[in-house]
Amino acid sequence: MENGNGETSNNNNNNARLAIMELANMISVPMSLNAIIKLKVADAIWEGGSNAPLSPAEILAKIRPQGGGDAENLQRILRMLTSYRVFEEHVVDDGSQRRYSLTEVGKTLVTDENGLSHGLYVLQHHQDALMRVWTMVHETVNDSSSDPFVKVYGEQPYSYYGKNPEMNSLMFNAMSGVSMPFMKVMLERYDGFEGVKTLVDVGGSVGDCLKMILEKHPSIELGINFDLPKVVEKAPQIPRIKHVGGDMLDYIPKGDAIFMKWILAIFTEDECKQIMKSCYNALPEKGKFIICDPVLPHHTDDSKRTRALLEIDIYGMAIYRAQGKHRTEEEYRQLGRAAGFTDCKGVYIDHFFTILEFYK
């Protein structure tokens, strides 16, 4: 209850102003993450698993063995990211020195034996070319018939990436850095590939995910990796995998199960219906269509999960397709029914990705 001095009202106003100031300055977070990743700070602290708290000067000595650099500015970045639980701060009693170790969040930035991490995903999202597109988000409201990326560069992002090998490589590695940890969890906890003899991976790139599935399920006799011809022509030969080039808007190869990971969000409603209808036609009776996507929650709240999912939806809208979108489970169910599938079951084994099974 407000007292006579309006103290409650003042507190509410102060909190509101603080909230909008935080939102206004939010760009400091991803840009500081970019800096930390480019400087390889997480690897310097982790150092084979020690994760020993280091001072900014000690970190600087590891990432710049040739000398130089500004430890004070590094500390400023580390402090800010500590407030977002990327780092753990260890302060000496008198406050004269601060040291930093990695939290569980920070550990996702450590590169693995294949040189992958979630750090590549952060860098992919904030490249110079994409930052120019972000200034056009309002145009998705003014005119969604033209995509922001096209308005800036005159072509679709995948076409643009194809002409820029460094961007293309970063995109590929960023997606691998996010996908591989999920695929490991999926293969441990999901049994939906049991009994499948021929599995089609639509949009499977060079076959990495399909290879993991086949290694886990030796009963699958044939895996068909289906993607654009220019993509699969670069794919390596993999036992039990056949690479097929084509366009999913035209047809889908036949199999007794079809797998699709993080594909449909860049397509419009009509395009999704067309693709799902092609999947339906490519399956036998009792065949199964398996989608693995970030599925939006039905209700909006301020949880990390909801924010992460709604944020990736805006990213897709701004960078890829103004009329493409991530969807709720019910929205996917309705698309499936329009394509002929009788029902859809959600399998929630991950906080970000959801598995949806559609049945004929």
UniProtKB/TrEMBL annotation:
O-methyltransferase dimerisation domain mapped to chain residues: 21-112
Superkingdom to which the source organism belongs: Eukaryota
SUPFAM superfamilies according to UniProt: S-adenosyl-L-methionine-dependent methyltransferases (SSF53335), Winged helix' DNA-binding domain (SSF46785)
Residue ranges of domain O-methyltransferase C-terminal in the record: 134-341
Keywords, in A-Z order: Methyltransferase, S-adenosyl-L-methionine, Transferase
Xref: Pfam families: Dimerisation, Methyltransf_2
Family indicated by similarity: Belongs to the class I-like SAM-binding methyltransferase superfamily. Cation-independent O-methyltransferase family. COMT subfamily.
Protein's name in the database: O-methyltransferase
Source organism (scientific name): Solanum tuberosum
